[in-house]
């Protein structure tokens, strides 16, 4: 008769295990429930067991009185023969799995039962069946439900004889058992067992749908009817024709073979479903890991939540009908194995140190079927430690790296233990799990790399954005800090990027040690860091910012050198009214960056205030409006004359850009030029000034005047390989000779990348253009580089010229620059000349050209023309290449 095993009934429909209810004696899943609930379920099932056993005994006694035993010593062999038949029927059972989660065993017990109804008294059949059933349970090491199953055995046989007796009386032949009565009684036995199992499901508070019960009962009746019919037919044929027993035996064997074939077919189908289920579970869990947001500490590594692996282990256990499934998984290369146990608890001694576990040292990646009778002492000891008689073990490997191991302990559904199908199924599942583990680790690595800075290991900007999203929503008083190392670019230039990177890593460690492991910390770009202080008051944020600045400003040891450092911190609090509406991390970082930029006024830790936003908004508006400003004439060019010493001839002018903004008024070049340059618009600015200046020179040439013009260059112009071509095109378009154009560049611009700037400068020099080094004396170039540069002029920085009259050091510097320039064959220009004393000193030193307020301020084009007419006199002059009029100052 059918016996349910595993998750026979409600696991199919409701996902709830009932493996402790049916007659298989399968282990309950109560041990994985909370202890209080498990104890309550166990108490209820004990009462139910006592009720079933009591009812079975009472029913057997009552039926025995109704059908008293009238034995015969000549039939003593019937009892032992029936017991052997029942025992054989139990052991030769066929495990049939219609769907994943539905499993019962066709045990053929209906055949000896129907024969027993026809040939033996009730008491004999009852004793034989109970003895065979209990013996089978003990052989399968199922001891926790023996009393319940014994009561079920009593109810099965009692109900069978009761129904058979009633049918026999109804047919009018109470003295003997007709075949119809025997058939009805035989079909009653499995139904009685099923009803008891369903009642046990309710006692254990498991849910089961009515449709599931009906379908299960229908299957049981069909199989019971086939088995009973075979047994009844065989009995009737042999009793009438004893010589026909070979035919009956052949039919019985054919039926058994049909059952086995059907079982194998369904098992293959079920195994495919199980593989699909496991693959889908792993895929879904991988997607959940990918979609799961990071923790506040920035944990984007392998997911350590084992719930999904527990579900997978339960599915494998259901499929193999194992007493226990153990998954030992290495979810992170730097972490020990994590253990997932589904089914019976592991003994305490088996949960210790796994480093020397022989099962974890199994070679290869194929399934090993290990039994307690193994000759290998270490493996036998490992099985004893696990409390298992047989184990299917398969290592999970990827590229010879151990990812974990899957263990299946003690099959429950078959007395003979695990078979070849179980080995094949577990091997295939293990292959899927190994691939899934490897893919999850790869996915975790990719996610970690996508959200972490590879140099410092801290969060990057996207990682910081994701980690801080939830804390910013939950906390009403958070603070975002931005920390910049000012010395980073200097270290990169002086020692190289390798040492600068080491300094960054050291700075990251200092910040992490100061803030602790649970504070979100990120490296944004370059030497900029960001910190989120959740649930933090502004006063505490100020203190932490000062602490960070102090830690980061301490000297760094770089290759046995002590590098002095400096750090500035800007922070913004979400509690401020101006930040309440836009508390997203990008807006807060932008405002913290404004505070960092404001620290350059001297204060090293600064909080954001709304006025900072107005400053940067002004810069943003200027950059976005710059093209329009040029088109509308808001941007103009002013000119400051340069005069020869001592002749006082006007040799040229310097073109200086000015912007009269309709909203902001006159904007200082020191404000808008760096913003335009940072926005990548310096090419537009240079082209505008160059064309405007060359147009002015062209008109002077048309008037017979040879006045040169000087235009300032940006470092970005020196990095543009097409710049010399555009300058040549402008000179040709306006018809201006190259010697009337001077291009000025600073020492620092050239020295940022001399290898790239030198070819550009040589091309410009080949066009006949004069090249001048501006602000000479304030940079860090060497004489060797100065000799390599194809320059024609050096301009003494005005800071030295201002101080000549009062500072002997400045006077000495100016004299040295004049002598150095002349020794290299260069024209020396002094800018910032504002007093007669300075002019006289420069003239006495032999300086060639003077420029400054003493001569003239920068003038608009119309005012320059007026100045030239009022302050100069025209005379004929001649050079080596051309002649024309020159202008000389009147005084």
TrEMBL record:
Domain EAL intervals: 619-872
Name recorded for this polypeptide: Diguanylate cyclase (GGDEF) domain-containing protein
InterPro entries, per the entry: Cyclic-di-GMP_PDE-like, EAL_dom, EAL_sf, GAF, GAF-like_dom_sf, GGDEF_dom, Nucleotide_cyclase, Rev_trsase/Diguanyl_cyclase
UniProt organism field: Saccharomonospora azurea NA-128
UniProt-annotated stretches for the region Disordered: 1-37
Gene3D superfamilies reported in the protein's UniProt record: 3.30.450.40, 3.30.70.270, EAL domain
Transmembrane segments: 47-67, 114-139, 146-167, 179-204, 216-238
Keyword Membrane: yes
One Pfam family here: GGDEF
PROSITE patterns for this protein: EAL, GGDEF
Feature: compositional bias, Low complexity: 1-19
